[in-house]
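Researcher: If only I could read C-alpha coordinates as easily as an amino acid sequence. Walk me, if you will, through where the backbone shape changes along the chain. I have put the entry right below:
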Amino acid sequence: MKQIKKIGLWCILLFACIQISGCGDSQTSWKSGDHEISSELNYEKSMDLDYATEFAVDYYENGFTLISISDGSRFLLNTEGEQVPEDLENGITVLNAPVSDIYLVASAAMDMFCSIGALDHICLSGLPEEKWEIPEAKAAMESGQIVYAGKYNAPDYELICSKECGLAIESTMIGHSPEVKENLESFGIPVLVDHSSYESDPLGRTEWVKLYGVLTGNEDAAVRAFEEQKQYVQELSDVETTGKTVAFFYVTTAGTVSVRKSNDYVPKMIDIAGGEYVFRNLKGEDNAASSVNMQMEEFYAQAKDADYLVYNSTIDGNLASIDDLLAKNSLFADFKAVQNGNVWCIRKNLYQDTMDTGSIIHDFHEMLNSEDTDELTYMYKLK
Protein backbone atom coordinates (compact mmCIF):
# COMPACT_ATOMS: atom_id res chain seq x y z
CA MET A 1 0.00 0.00 0.00
CA LYS A 2 2.86 2.41 0.83
CA GLN A 3 4.43 1.63 -2.53
CA ILE A 4 1.19 2.48 -4.35
CA LYS A 5 0.93 5.79 -2.46
CA LYS A 6 4.55 6.59 -3.31
CA ILE A 7 3.92 5.94 -7.02
CA GLY A 8 0.81 8.12 -6.89
CA LEU A 9 2.78 10.93 -5.25
CA TRP A 10 5.45 10.75 -7.95
CA CYS A 11 2.76 10.94 -10.64
CA ILE A 12 1.30 14.07 -9.06
CA LEU A 13 4.74 15.68 -8.82
CA LEU A 14 5.52 14.79 -12.43
CA PHE A 15 2.23 16.29 -13.64
CA ALA A 16 2.92 19.47 -11.65
CA CYS A 17 6.38 19.78 -13.21
CA ILE A 18 4.90 19.45 -16.69
CA GLN A 19 2.37 22.18 -15.95
CA ILE A 20 5.00 24.51 -14.52
CA SER A 21 7.46 23.98 -17.32
CA GLY A 22 4.79 24.46 -19.96
CA CYS A 23 5.60 21.12 -21.61
CA GLY A 24 1.91 20.36 -21.80
CA ASP A 25 1.10 23.62 -23.61
CA SER A 26 0.97 22.89 -27.32
CA GLN A 27 0.35 26.55 -28.08
CA THR A 28 3.72 27.69 -26.73
CA SER A 29 6.07 24.74 -27.18
CA TRP A 30 5.60 24.04 -30.90
CA LYS A 31 7.97 26.74 -32.14
CA SER A 32 10.59 26.60 -29.40
CA GLY A 33 14.05 25.18 -29.99
CA ASP A 34 17.50 26.09 -31.27
CA HIS A 35 16.51 26.09 -34.99
CA GLU A 36 18.84 23.21 -35.79
CA ILE A 37 16.98 20.86 -38.11
CA SER A 38 20.01 19.48 -39.93
CA SER A 39 23.77 19.57 -39.53
CA GLU A 40 23.95 20.87 -43.10
CA LEU A 41 21.55 23.81 -42.70
CA ASN A 42 22.74 26.99 -41.01
CA TYR A 43 20.03 29.12 -39.45
CA GLU A 44 20.08 32.81 -40.44
CA LYS A 45 17.02 34.55 -39.01
CA SER A 46 13.29 34.33 -38.27
CA MET A 47 10.42 36.28 -39.80
CA ASP A 48 9.28 39.25 -37.74
CA LEU A 49 5.63 38.79 -36.81
CA ASP A 50 3.71 41.62 -35.16
CA TYR A 51 0.48 39.84 -34.19
CA ALA A 52 0.31 36.26 -35.52
CA THR A 53 1.04 33.51 -33.01
CA GLU A 54 -0.10 30.39 -34.87
CA PHE A 55 2.83 30.09 -37.31
CA ALA A 56 6.53 30.88 -37.54
CA VAL A 57 9.01 31.19 -40.42
CA ASP A 58 12.76 30.54 -40.12
CA TYR A 59 15.31 31.23 -42.84
CA TYR A 60 18.39 29.10 -43.53
CA GLU A 61 21.33 29.41 -45.88
CA ASN A 62 21.06 28.34 -49.54
CA GLY A 63 17.43 29.41 -49.85
CA PHE A 64 15.83 26.99 -47.40
CA THR A 65 12.86 28.31 -45.43
CA LEU A 66 11.09 26.48 -42.61
CA ILE A 67 7.39 27.09 -41.96
CA SER A 68 6.11 25.86 -38.59
CA ILE A 69 2.40 25.64 -37.74
CA SER A 70 0.92 25.53 -34.23
CA ASP A 71 -0.42 22.01 -34.82
CA GLY A 72 3.19 20.81 -34.91
CA SER A 73 3.50 20.42 -38.69
CA ARG A 74 6.61 21.77 -40.43
CA PHE A 75 7.37 22.46 -44.08
CA LEU A 76 10.80 23.11 -45.56
CA LEU A 77 10.71 25.23 -48.69
CA ASN A 78 13.52 24.58 -51.15
CA THR A 79 13.59 27.82 -53.13
CA GLU A 80 16.84 27.30 -55.05
CA GLY A 81 16.65 23.64 -56.05
CA GLU A 82 19.40 22.61 -53.63
CA GLN A 83 20.08 19.07 -52.45
CA VAL A 84 17.94 18.37 -49.38
CA PRO A 85 20.07 17.25 -46.38
CA GLU A 86 19.90 13.55 -45.64
CA ASP A 87 19.83 14.14 -41.89
CA LEU A 88 16.79 16.45 -41.97
CA GLU A 89 14.68 16.02 -38.85
CA ASN A 90 11.80 13.56 -39.11
CA GLY A 91 8.35 14.98 -39.65
CA ILE A 92 9.40 17.87 -41.89
CA THR A 93 7.68 17.95 -45.29
CA VAL A 94 9.85 19.26 -48.13
CA LEU A 95 8.21 21.50 -50.75
CA ASN A 96 9.76 22.89 -53.90
CA ALA A 97 9.08 26.61 -53.89
CA PRO A 98 7.33 28.59 -55.13
CA VAL A 99 4.47 26.16 -54.55
CA SER A 100 1.90 25.85 -57.34
CA ASP A 101 -1.13 23.75 -58.31
CA ILE A 102 -2.65 24.29 -54.88
CA TYR A 103 -5.95 22.78 -53.74
CA LEU A 104 -7.34 25.61 -51.58
CA VAL A 105 -9.99 24.51 -49.11
CA ALA A 106 -9.37 27.15 -46.42
CA SER A 107 -11.62 29.92 -47.77
CA ALA A 108 -10.02 32.50 -45.48
CA ALA A 109 -6.78 32.24 -47.46
CA MET A 110 -8.22 33.08 -50.90
CA ASP A 111 -8.32 36.83 -50.27
CA MET A 112 -4.68 36.67 -49.18
CA PHE A 113 -3.62 35.01 -52.43
CA CYS A 114 -5.54 37.65 -54.40
CA SER A 115 -4.01 40.54 -52.46
CA ILE A 116 -0.46 39.48 -53.38
CA GLY A 117 -1.13 38.55 -57.00
CA ALA A 118 -0.74 34.83 -56.37
CA LEU A 119 -4.12 33.56 -57.58
CA ASP A 120 -2.41 31.67 -60.41
CA HIS A 121 -0.81 29.36 -57.83
CA ILE A 122 -4.27 27.87 -57.10
CA CYS A 123 -5.80 25.34 -59.49
CA LEU A 124 -8.41 23.65 -57.27
CA SER A 125 -11.04 25.02 -54.90
CA GLY A 126 -12.91 23.58 -51.94
CA LEU A 127 -15.83 25.91 -52.68
CA PRO A 128 -17.93 25.99 -55.86
CA GLU A 129 -18.08 29.22 -57.84
CA GLU A 130 -21.41 30.39 -56.38
CA LYS A 131 -20.05 30.19 -52.82
CA TRP A 132 -17.25 32.66 -53.41
CA GLU A 133 -17.87 36.34 -52.66
CA ILE A 134 -14.40 37.33 -53.85
CA PRO A 135 -14.71 38.59 -57.47
CA GLU A 136 -11.27 37.34 -58.53
CA ALA A 137 -12.05 33.84 -57.27
CA LYS A 138 -15.42 33.74 -59.02
CA ALA A 139 -13.84 34.94 -62.29
CA ALA A 140 -11.04 32.37 -62.06
CA MET A 141 -13.55 29.57 -61.60
CA GLU A 142 -15.79 30.88 -64.38
CA SER A 143 -12.83 30.84 -66.78
CA GLY A 144 -11.74 27.36 -65.69
CA GLN A 145 -8.45 28.54 -64.23
CA ILE A 146 -9.61 27.15 -60.89
CA VAL A 147 -11.77 24.02 -60.74
CA TYR A 148 -14.05 22.85 -57.95
CA ALA A 149 -12.57 19.70 -56.40
CA GLY A 150 -15.05 18.99 -53.62
CA LYS A 151 -15.50 20.29 -50.08
CA TYR A 152 -13.16 19.53 -47.22
CA ASN A 153 -14.81 16.26 -46.19
CA ALA A 154 -15.59 14.96 -49.70
CA PRO A 155 -12.74 15.82 -52.07
CA ASP A 156 -12.52 14.49 -55.61
CA TYR A 157 -9.31 12.51 -55.17
CA GLU A 158 -9.13 11.47 -58.82
CA LEU A 159 -9.35 15.08 -60.01
CA ILE A 160 -6.87 16.30 -57.40
CA CYS A 161 -4.32 13.66 -58.37
CA SER A 162 -4.82 14.31 -62.09
CA LYS A 163 -3.91 17.98 -61.53
CA GLU A 164 -0.63 16.94 -59.88
CA CYS A 165 -1.59 19.00 -56.85
CA GLY A 166 1.47 20.41 -55.08
CA LEU A 167 -0.21 21.26 -51.77
CA ALA A 168 -3.62 21.09 -50.12
CA ILE A 169 -4.40 24.00 -47.81
CA GLU A 170 -7.16 22.99 -45.41
CA SER A 171 -9.03 24.85 -42.70
CA THR A 172 -9.20 23.50 -39.17
CA MET A 173 -12.50 21.85 -40.17
CA ILE A 174 -10.35 19.01 -41.51
CA GLY A 175 -10.05 17.93 -37.89
CA HIS A 176 -13.60 16.59 -38.22
CA SER A 177 -12.52 14.39 -41.15
CA PRO A 178 -8.95 13.31 -40.37
CA GLU A 179 -9.20 10.45 -42.84
CA VAL A 180 -9.26 12.98 -45.70
CA LYS A 181 -5.91 14.40 -44.64
CA GLU A 182 -4.51 10.89 -44.35
CA ASN A 183 -5.82 9.97 -47.80
CA LEU A 184 -4.36 13.07 -49.46
CA GLU A 185 -0.99 12.44 -47.88
CA SER A 186 -1.10 8.78 -48.93
CA PHE A 187 -1.40 10.03 -52.53
CA GLY A 188 1.74 12.11 -52.03
CA ILE A 189 -0.12 15.42 -51.57
CA PRO A 190 1.19 17.48 -48.62
CA VAL A 191 -1.44 19.06 -46.38
CA LEU A 192 -1.04 22.38 -44.57
CA VAL A 193 -3.78 23.33 -42.12
CA ASP A 194 -4.52 27.06 -41.94
CA HIS A 195 -4.92 28.11 -38.28
CA SER A 196 -5.57 31.79 -38.96
CA SER A 197 -9.03 31.48 -37.39
CA TYR A 198 -7.34 30.67 -34.08
CA GLU A 199 -5.63 34.06 -33.95
CA SER A 200 -7.01 36.21 -31.15
CA ASP A 201 -6.10 39.49 -32.83
CA PRO A 202 -7.73 40.45 -36.17
CA LEU A 203 -4.35 41.60 -37.46
CA GLY A 204 -2.88 38.27 -36.41
CA ARG A 205 -5.34 36.61 -38.75
CA THR A 206 -4.46 39.04 -41.54
CA GLU A 207 -0.73 38.50 -40.97
CA TRP A 208 -1.08 34.96 -42.32
CA VAL A 209 -0.73 36.64 -45.73
CA LYS A 210 3.01 36.60 -45.01
CA LEU A 211 2.98 32.80 -44.85
CA TYR A 212 1.32 32.59 -48.26
CA GLY A 213 3.75 35.17 -49.57
CA VAL A 214 6.60 32.87 -48.57
CA LEU A 215 4.92 29.83 -50.14
CA THR A 216 4.37 31.54 -53.49
CA GLY A 217 7.49 33.70 -53.72
CA ASN A 218 5.54 36.94 -53.13
CA GLU A 219 6.91 37.83 -49.72
CA ASP A 220 7.45 41.53 -50.43
CA ALA A 221 3.91 41.94 -51.75
CA ALA A 222 2.61 40.15 -48.65
CA VAL A 223 4.45 42.53 -46.33
CA ARG A 224 3.02 45.53 -48.19
CA ALA A 225 -0.52 44.12 -48.07
CA PHE A 226 -0.25 43.46 -44.34
CA GLU A 227 1.26 46.85 -43.54
CA GLU A 228 -1.62 48.57 -45.34
CA GLN A 229 -4.19 46.85 -43.13
CA LYS A 230 -2.03 47.36 -40.04
CA GLN A 231 -1.90 51.11 -40.63
CA TYR A 232 -5.66 51.29 -41.23
CA VAL A 233 -6.45 49.42 -38.02
CA GLN A 234 -3.97 51.45 -35.96
CA GLU A 235 -5.72 54.63 -37.10
CA LEU A 236 -9.04 53.20 -35.94
CA SER A 237 -7.60 52.01 -32.63
CA ASP A 238 -7.50 55.60 -31.34
CA VAL A 239 -11.28 55.90 -31.24
CA GLU A 240 -12.92 56.46 -27.87
CA THR A 241 -14.81 53.68 -26.14
CA THR A 242 -18.56 54.15 -26.44
CA GLY A 243 -19.52 51.87 -23.56
CA LYS A 244 -22.11 50.22 -25.82
CA THR A 245 -22.37 46.44 -25.66
CA VAL A 246 -22.59 44.18 -28.71
CA ALA A 247 -23.69 40.55 -29.13
CA PHE A 248 -22.40 38.81 -32.27
CA PHE A 249 -24.18 35.49 -32.93
CA TYR A 250 -26.34 33.22 -35.04
CA VAL A 251 -29.03 30.64 -34.26
CA THR A 252 -28.14 27.08 -35.21
CA THR A 253 -30.52 24.60 -36.85
CA ALA A 254 -30.75 22.87 -33.45
CA GLY A 255 -32.05 26.07 -31.84
CA THR A 256 -28.91 26.81 -29.83
CA VAL A 257 -27.01 30.08 -30.24
CA SER A 258 -23.45 30.20 -31.54
CA VAL A 259 -21.30 33.07 -30.25
CA ARG A 260 -17.66 33.92 -30.76
CA LYS A 261 -15.36 33.41 -27.80
CA SER A 262 -14.35 36.56 -25.97
CA ASN A 263 -10.70 36.08 -27.00
CA ASP A 264 -11.61 35.67 -30.69
CA TYR A 265 -10.67 38.20 -33.37
CA VAL A 266 -14.30 39.32 -33.98
CA PRO A 267 -14.80 40.58 -30.39
CA LYS A 268 -11.40 42.28 -30.71
CA MET A 269 -12.69 44.09 -33.82
CA ILE A 270 -15.69 45.27 -31.83
CA ASP A 271 -13.41 46.49 -29.03
CA ILE A 272 -11.18 48.40 -31.47
CA ALA A 273 -14.29 50.01 -32.99
CA GLY A 274 -15.23 51.39 -29.57
CA GLY A 275 -17.75 48.77 -28.48
CA GLU A 276 -17.75 46.14 -25.77
CA TYR A 277 -18.39 42.49 -26.55
CA VAL A 278 -21.15 41.37 -24.21
CA PHE A 279 -19.87 37.82 -23.63
CA ARG A 280 -16.98 37.28 -21.23
CA ASN A 281 -15.54 34.14 -19.65
CA LEU A 282 -17.70 31.72 -21.61
CA LYS A 283 -17.73 28.03 -20.84
CA GLY A 284 -15.44 26.11 -23.16
CA GLU A 285 -13.15 29.05 -23.87
CA ASP A 286 -10.11 26.91 -23.06
CA ASN A 287 -10.55 24.67 -26.13
CA ALA A 288 -9.25 25.44 -29.61
CA ALA A 289 -12.57 26.22 -31.32
CA SER A 290 -13.36 29.86 -32.11
CA SER A 291 -17.02 29.76 -31.07
CA VAL A 292 -19.24 28.41 -28.30
CA ASN A 293 -22.80 27.09 -28.50
CA MET A 294 -25.18 27.99 -25.69
CA GLN A 295 -28.80 27.30 -24.95
CA MET A 296 -31.22 30.12 -25.73
CA GLU A 297 -31.97 30.64 -22.03
CA GLU A 298 -28.30 31.28 -21.29
CA PHE A 299 -27.96 33.58 -24.29
CA TYR A 300 -31.07 35.45 -23.14
CA ALA A 301 -29.59 35.98 -19.67
CA GLN A 302 -26.32 37.40 -21.00
CA ALA A 303 -27.44 39.33 -24.11
CA LYS A 304 -30.96 40.55 -23.29
CA ASP A 305 -29.69 44.01 -22.33
CA ALA A 306 -27.02 44.31 -25.02
CA ASP A 307 -27.19 47.64 -26.87
CA TYR A 308 -26.66 46.01 -30.28
CA LEU A 309 -27.37 42.60 -31.78
CA VAL A 310 -25.31 41.65 -34.84
CA TYR A 311 -26.50 38.52 -36.62
CA ASN A 312 -23.77 36.49 -38.29
CA SER A 313 -25.39 35.46 -41.57
CA THR A 314 -22.21 33.84 -42.92
CA ILE A 315 -23.37 30.41 -41.74
CA ASP A 316 -27.12 30.76 -41.50
CA GLY A 317 -27.99 33.09 -44.39
CA ASN A 318 -29.19 36.69 -44.49
CA LEU A 319 -32.16 37.98 -42.53
CA ALA A 320 -34.51 40.41 -44.25
CA SER A 321 -36.19 41.87 -41.18
CA ILE A 322 -36.50 41.74 -37.41
CA ASP A 323 -39.49 39.46 -37.96
CA ASP A 324 -37.08 36.91 -39.46
CA LEU A 325 -35.11 37.03 -36.21
CA LEU A 326 -38.26 36.66 -34.10
CA ALA A 327 -39.24 33.65 -36.20
CA LYS A 328 -36.12 31.89 -34.95
CA ASN A 329 -37.16 32.43 -31.33
CA SER A 330 -39.91 34.63 -29.89
CA LEU A 331 -37.72 35.49 -26.88
CA PHE A 332 -35.82 37.96 -29.06
CA ALA A 333 -38.81 40.30 -28.70
CA ASP A 334 -37.71 41.00 -25.11
CA PHE A 335 -34.21 42.07 -26.08
CA LYS A 336 -33.27 45.71 -25.55
CA ALA A 337 -31.64 45.98 -29.00
CA VAL A 338 -34.77 44.64 -30.71
CA GLN A 339 -37.02 47.08 -28.88
CA ASN A 340 -34.68 49.98 -29.73
CA GLY A 341 -34.22 48.95 -33.35
CA ASN A 342 -30.49 48.26 -33.03
CA VAL A 343 -30.35 44.90 -34.80
CA TRP A 344 -27.88 44.42 -37.64
CA CYS A 345 -27.07 41.60 -40.02
CA ILE A 346 -23.73 40.78 -41.64
CA ARG A 347 -24.11 41.13 -45.41
CA LYS A 348 -20.81 39.71 -46.63
CA ASN A 349 -18.59 36.82 -45.66
CA LEU A 350 -16.25 38.17 -42.98
CA TYR A 351 -14.23 34.97 -43.13
CA GLN A 352 -13.48 35.30 -46.84
CA ASP A 353 -12.50 38.99 -46.69
CA THR A 354 -9.40 38.52 -44.54
CA MET A 355 -7.56 41.40 -46.20
CA ASP A 356 -10.29 43.94 -45.42
CA THR A 357 -9.92 43.98 -41.65
CA GLY A 358 -9.84 47.77 -41.47
CA SER A 359 -13.10 48.18 -43.39
CA ILE A 360 -14.89 45.66 -41.18
CA ILE A 361 -13.78 47.47 -38.02
CA HIS A 362 -14.83 50.76 -39.64
CA ASP A 363 -18.34 49.39 -40.16
CA PHE A 364 -18.60 48.34 -36.52
CA HIS A 365 -17.48 51.86 -35.56
CA GLU A 366 -20.10 53.47 -37.81
CA MET A 367 -22.80 51.19 -36.39
CA LEU A 368 -21.91 52.31 -32.86
CA ASN A 369 -21.55 56.02 -33.58
CA SER A 370 -23.72 57.08 -36.52
CA GLU A 371 -27.44 57.75 -36.14
CA ASP A 372 -28.19 57.89 -39.87
CA THR A 373 -26.31 54.83 -41.13
CA ASP A 374 -28.72 52.07 -42.14
CA GLU A 375 -26.44 50.24 -44.56
CA LEU A 376 -22.68 49.72 -44.61
CA THR A 377 -20.26 47.64 -46.65
CA TYR A 378 -20.40 44.61 -44.38
CA MET A 379 -23.67 44.97 -42.52
CA TYR A 380 -27.16 46.42 -42.71
CA LYS A 381 -29.82 47.32 -40.16
CA LEU A 382 -32.87 45.11 -39.78
CA LYS A 383 -36.26 46.79 -39.68
In short: The two ends are 71 Å apart (CA to CA). Residues 2-21 form the longest helix (20 residues).
